[in-house]
Design goal:
single chain, alpha+beta, 60s Ribosomal Protein L30, Chain: A, 2 domains, four-stranded mixed beta sheet, two-stranded antiparallel ribbon
Amino acid sequence: MQAITAKRILIVVIAVFSLSLMVGCSGMEKRPQYRGGYLYYPTALVNADRALDEARAAGKDKECPEEFNAAKDMVDKAYETYMACHTQEAIEMANKAIAEIKALCPAKPVAAMKPEPTPVPAPAPEATPPPPAPVVEPAKVVLEDINFDFDKATLTEVATGILDSDIKTLKENPGLKIQIEGNTCSHGAEDYNMALGERRADAVREYLENQGIAADRMTTISYGETRPLCVEEPTPKNKNSKCMKENRRVHFKVIGE
């Protein structure tokens, strides 16, 4: 008799527990067949499963698998959270998953097709124009260098004659700007020669300016013995050799027009 009573009590308990699961309370729905655990879950969790099913049916699990799987993991996590007795957190997680599922694989904008342009009839052929006249490059302006006596920065008669010819060229080309470069031979100390080259460049600039060449068209620089036209070892006997004479010069460089 006692055994029968105990058995009846157990049946009643099981029945009551089952009814609590089946009936539940407001906001509970029966789980999908593939979802284990309780028979009833909060509506938000069941809706998240429905959204997954709809996205899968629409092929979004193939179109954007990474995003789909991330959303599915979030739904599974919501169920695990509910099973751990964190109901509100599980519902919030399910609602967030639903929003992400609905936003899966957004449609890409389709570029508007432009209508084909109406073909324009080709104009009647015109007479072939004569070929353009060949472009003649302007002649390159070259100013002649001048030379100096040994250890001197004064202009010789020959030098001034050359400079007068250069001045004529400069006046015929009023936009021309030049750099006046003073040079020396290799006799003497390097510092001394650098200063000597500067005096030679200044002497030429002063002469050109006195003959009407504007100062803003000229700049000066000294290279001393660093840019020889020819190289010869200096000795007491060769200071007036052809090579040394060629190195004692002022060179003109056209720097702009």
